[in-house]
Amino acid sequence: NPQQPDATTESVCGYCATGCSLKVHLKDSEAFNLSADANYPVNLGMACPKGWESLAPLKATDRATTPLLRDASGKLNPITWEEAMLEMITRFKSIKQRHGGRALSWLSTGQIPSEEMAFLGALCKFGMGMIHGDGNTRQCMATAVAAYKESFGFDAPPYTYQDFEESDVLVFVGSNLCITHPIMWQRVMRNRRNPEIIVLDPRRTETAMAATKHLPLRPKSDLALLYCFARLLVENDWLDNDFIQAHTEGFSELKEFLLNGPYDLATVAELSGLDQGAIFEVARMIGSGKRVSLWWTMGVNQSYEGTRVAQAIINLALLTGNIGKPGTGANSITGQCNAMGSRLFSNSTNLLGGHKFTLAKDRSKIAGILGIEEDCIPQEDSWAYDEILEGVERGEIKGLWIIATNTAHSWINQNRWNKLREQLDFMVVQDMYHTSETAQMADLVLPAAGWGEKEGTFINSERRIGRTRKVSRAPGQALADFHIFQLVAHYWGCGELFNRWNSPEAVFKILTEVSKGQPCDISGIKDYAMIESEGGIQWPLPEGTEAFDTQRRLFADGQFFYPSGRAKLIFEAPRKLPEATDVEYPFTLLTGRGSSSQWHTQTRTGKSDVLRKLYPAKSYIEINPKDAERLGIESESKVVISSRRGEITASAHLTPITPVGSIFAPMHYREVNQLTHSSFDPQSRQPNYKACAVQVCKA
Ligand code: SF4
């Protein structure tokens, strides 16, 4: 039977941060099929279309199979690995010699294993002398990181997926879970407690349609609405006063802010366009004393004031004591398969293991564990993604290494940033495909293995470390990113620093050592075999932990990560939209995931015939039929959408899902970010993809 595998193995999916396990079917050690893993505690035998189609992108005809170097005429030509390394090192060293280590930088991803992220960050900072590097996790999770750090004292999502099934009230803020995290949604559907499902979203999304209550608030009135809920909790004493007193600080200041600010029911109902009764009812449910869990994702994170919105959600959980217990939590749902690995181990924003570059004792600890000189470790924080690109714009950064991310498509206000290419002396792109928009702009393309062609670990949304495995050989001369980093270290002349970093599992061991004593302590994980036998392991797991549950949440003891043990109630008055609508640009542009069958810039999912059939090939927008009628726009006709930054053409999909006065554009098409506005959350530096002003007219 040609469909009969001669072996199977399990590997965590390489798309979203749900972290489903896939059972990969092998013949002669090569993957030829897969199914969902029925025994893994995350997905319980389920997978979404992207997971089922995970093998298709590996067989694409446009895989990068050899290094490519651009010649004087602008053509990319195949070269050997040795030529590629000599070129990259010569060009980068020349830049460093002339301008210093600050003139080199890297941009990486939440899509590669923690071991590779850690190697890249250590190589760039400790080996090559760079200061600034960041990942595309800045586009998805930076806000949650900043919010948790300030509120809890560490970047610590508190929940386990079991909480979806054990809540009485689930509140989703800016999350279309049905589409963005379909297997998490299936966990909600398994909830047998007859829960209230409340969705706060301007659009009547698939999740909103399935909810028991949808609050279609006006775009970016979320912060005022959350403060209104908190004020109603205070006014009606729907509070867990014992919890507040024992485990939080800042309550009296928050109370004064809420009661003296414009967060009363009438004012917020007017601002948000919501019914007063509906707002009151949701506040009452949050303060009901039942098990309440609050969940958020990109509708919150990708905002100019995202950190404060996330903290307003965290405050609701703290005020009602909904944390550390089954079915509760202020829970950030992560985007990419290893965004949390990047948060803890990429050595970009934080020193390895959630340490601080600015603390001498942290630098000394890491230097001791790694056996390197302390002065190899920078004493300052890295610039964020947007600051790095501004560094390029100012001519301070001259050499850029981009790994497994498609900046030219995904970064906000694309037309501005794509001009930066001309500012760079040398740009290296390391990717599975030579055809991505970013690879097409490179001076040098390094061909990389993809998910399924290499080993390592990912950390999912609920802090679960899972194994991803090599089940297929990479084509041509493509190498695992891990091996490319080894090559770069060797040719740079700093290979000796990384003698211990000789395999992904050896690096994982190092990561367990650097984590020791941190909130994310995983020193109790002995090896990969332990992760595999346990069905993934949630952090923390300190050395000496003998027995542990497969579903664990944080803060069961009410102790947070500040020295006081208390969580902080943080607040700040809402700010104005960076770009409000006006007569010339009267529509608010909302962007987001358009389908469970597509992933980000379609670099991989666009390679699957099956996934392409599930999703329109050409760019489209959603517009409310009332707006369409007023503008004379017919269903599926072409429209021109323009902002102060650019103009695109797309098909018009008429749907009441999107409210009057807004349009929705999926992020999967390159055109969209020609329109978006360069504004950022000041705490997290996350881009504000969710609201800018545009004009729509017939093409
Ligand atoms: Fe699961 Fe996400 Fe992979 Fe889909 S993309 S199979 S939800 S991990």
TrEMBL record:
Domain 4Fe-4S Mo/W bis-MGD-type: 6-62
Listed GO biological process terms: cellular respiration; nitrate assimilation
Protein family membership: Belongs to the prokaryotic molybdopterin-containing oxidoreductase family. NasA/NapA/NarB subfamily.
GO cellular component: membrane
Cofactor names: Mo-bis(molybdopterin guanine dinucleotide); [4Fe-4S] cluster
InterPro entries linked to this entry: Asp_de-COase-like_dom_sf, CT_Nitrate-R-NapA-like, MoPterin_dinucl-bd_dom, Mopterin_OxRdtase, Mopterin_OxRdtase_4Fe-4S_dom, MopterinOxRdtase_cofactor_BS, Prok_molybdopt-oxidoreductase
Keyword vocabulary terms for this entry: 4Fe-4S, Iron, Iron-sulfur, Metal-binding, Molybdenum, Nitrate assimilation, Oxidoreductase
Name the record gives this protein: Nitrate reductase catalytic subunit
GO molecular function: 4 iron, 4 sulfur cluster binding; metal ion binding; molybdopterin cofactor binding; oxidoreductase activity
CDD domains: MopB_CT_Nitrate-R-NapA-like, MopB_Nitrate-R-NapA-like
One Pfam family linked to the record: Molybdopterin
